[in-house]
Each structure stands twice: as structure tokens, then as C-alpha cells.
């Protein structure tokens, strides 16, 4: 989904996540391959260019303007999820296919229906999908029932800005999350990335939307917006490129950023 919204009281259960990924199925690749063609994705590409999509975004924004705390859950309940591709993000599948991602513990904040969580998970990567919407997580758990790597991921209902895991992460993947939080919360997003990512970990940001637009969500983002909140914590971009695998109307307004933390940082 676009974001985990914020509410003052979050029910959180203590969790003990494994420090090493494991499972019954011994395969080092995700069970979904980037080379496969999904008819639903082709259908989604058409929907991205349909006026219906704009109408859904307007309805979504209307719900959030009335109820910023519970609006995201209502969007999932009513099926107003124009950000949901219905399958894993194509460029993420490409990265997995090239085997360029870190192994270990992975976090996907605002995971929505969990497609990316399921795709990343394997015995070498234990993935946590974090989400505030109960209805989104219900959908994620339904989808994940058929996953061969079910022991390699979990979904947690919690607020990204308040959640306190027992261990840090080797990889964090952010897509349609940074753009969904209100711009005044972006500095807090940067702080949380610093708190959650291991010193030698990697942050992957799929930056969307980078085109000119007013209002939100999704709110307009730029490379400079990410640099502003990540540089003070020692993050440096190792690669920022246009996302050639962006879907539908997102083409031309997405960039793929890969970030690593340096040994020192400055708050100046």
C-alpha cells in the first residue's frame, strides 16, 4: 500500500524473529521468476492508463482526508487500492533474478497484500512485512497460503514509526511508502531507516512519483528529498537509475535507488 498511517495506540505483540533464515524448502531463489508472464499484470498495465484509476485515487484521497488514521484500512476494505499491482514489483523480481540483493533479514514497510514479501523470501532471506491495515494483512495472509517458503516470512500489524523489533535488518525495500506519508514525516522516516538497518545493510527505494503533481498521496518525490533525510544518517547512494520496468503510467516517473550506510554520520 502507499503507507502505514499513524495512530497513537498500537497493539503490538512481542516477537522473536529468527536471526538466521530457515525453512523446509532448500532453494536459494524466490519461487516467482522475473521471466514469467502474468496475464493479470498485462491487465493491470491497461488499468494504469484508464480513467478509472484516477477516480480511485481521488476516492482514496477523500477517505484519507476524512480519516487519516483509519483511512488506509477503509481503502483496502472498499477495494480502493490503485497502488496494488496484484503481483510482485517487476524491477524487484529482476534484482532477485540477478542475485544482487543482500541475504539475511529483510523488511518491507507498508507491505500491503504482501506480494513483494513473498517474492523476496527464501531460506537465505527472512522477510518481515509490516503493515497497519488489518484488511491488507488479511489479504496478504490469504495470498501467502500457497507459498513454498511460508516459513521464511511473516506479516506484522504495527506502525512503522513506533514499532520496535528485536533485531535490525540487512535489507529494507521501500516502494509506495515514502510517497504516501505526509512530507513533514519524511525526516522521521530517515531516522527509522537508520534505526532499523544494520551498519552494512542496504536500503532500496523505488522512488515514485517523480513527476510534477500537487497534493497526495501519493506525494511528489525527488532524489533530493531522499538525500535530505538520508545523508545526515550516513547513507550514500550507490546507484540511482530510471526504472525501465515501471508499470503503465508510472513509466517515466520512477527511479530505483540503492543506498548504503557509511561508518560515520553527521546531524549538522
Automatic annotation (TrEMBL):
Gene Ontology terms, MF aspect: S-adenosylmethionine-dependent methyltransferase activity
Query: Does this entry carry the keyword S-adenosyl-L-methionine?
Result: yes
Q: Does the keyword Transferase apply?
A: yes
Q: Name one Pfam family in it.
A: TPMT
Q: Name one GO biological process term.
A: methylation
Which keywords belong to this entry?
A: Methyltransferase, Phosphoprotein, S-adenosyl-L-methionine, Transferase
Q: Which PANTHER family match?
A: PTHR32183, THIOL METHYLTRANSFERASE 2-RELATED
Q: What is this protein called?
A: Thiol methyltransferase 2
Q: What is the taxonomic lineage of the source species?
A: Eukaryota, Viridiplantae, Streptophyta, Embryophyta, Tracheophyta
Amino acid at each position: 500500500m502507499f503507507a502505514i498511517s499513524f495512530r497513537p495506540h498500537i497493539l503490538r505483540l512481542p516477537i522473536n524473529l529468527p536471526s538466521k533464515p530457515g525453512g523446509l524448502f532448500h532453494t536459494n531463489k524466490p519461487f516467482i521468476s522475473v521471466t514469467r508472464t502474468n496475464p493479470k499484470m498485462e491487465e493491470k498495465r491497461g488499468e494504469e492508463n484508464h480513467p478509472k484509476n484516477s477516480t480511485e485515487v481521488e476516492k482514496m484521497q477523500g477517505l484519507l482526508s476524512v480519516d487519516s488514521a483509519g483511512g488506509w484500512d477503509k481503502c483496502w476494505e472498499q477495494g480502493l487500492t490503485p497502488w496494488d499491482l496484484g503481483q510482485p514489483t517487476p524491477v524487484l523480481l529482476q534484482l532477485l533474478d540477478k542475485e544482487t540483493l543482500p541475504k539475511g533479514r529483510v523488511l518491507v514497510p507498508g507491505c500491503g497484500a504482501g506480494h513483494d514479501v513473498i517474492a523476496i523470501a527464501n531460506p537465505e532471506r527472512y522477510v518481515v512485512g509490516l503493515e497497519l491495515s488489518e484488511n491488507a494483512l488479511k489479504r496478504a495472509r490469504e495470498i501467502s497460503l500457497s507459498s513454498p517458503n511460508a516459513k521464511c516470512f511473516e506479516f506484522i500489524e504495527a506502525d512503522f514509526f513506533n514499532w520496535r523489533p528485536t533485531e535490525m535488518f540487512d535489507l529494507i525495500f521501500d516502494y509506495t511508502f515514502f510517497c504516501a506519508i505526509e512530507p513533514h514525516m519524511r525526516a522521521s522516516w530517515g531516522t527509522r531507516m537508520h534505526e532499523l538497518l544494520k551498519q552494512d545493510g542496504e536500503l532500496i527505494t523505488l522512488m515514485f512519483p517523480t513527476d510534477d503533481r500537487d497534493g497526495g498521496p501519493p506525494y511528489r518525490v525527488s532524489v533530493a528529498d531522499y538525500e535530505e533525510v538520508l545523508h545526515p544518517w550516513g547513507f550514500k547512494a550507490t546507484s540511482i537509475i530510471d526504472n525501465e520496468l515501471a508499470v503503465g503510467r508510472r513509466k517515466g516517473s520512477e527511479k530505483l535507488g540503492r543506498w548504503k550506510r557509511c561508518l560515520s554520520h553527521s546531524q549538522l
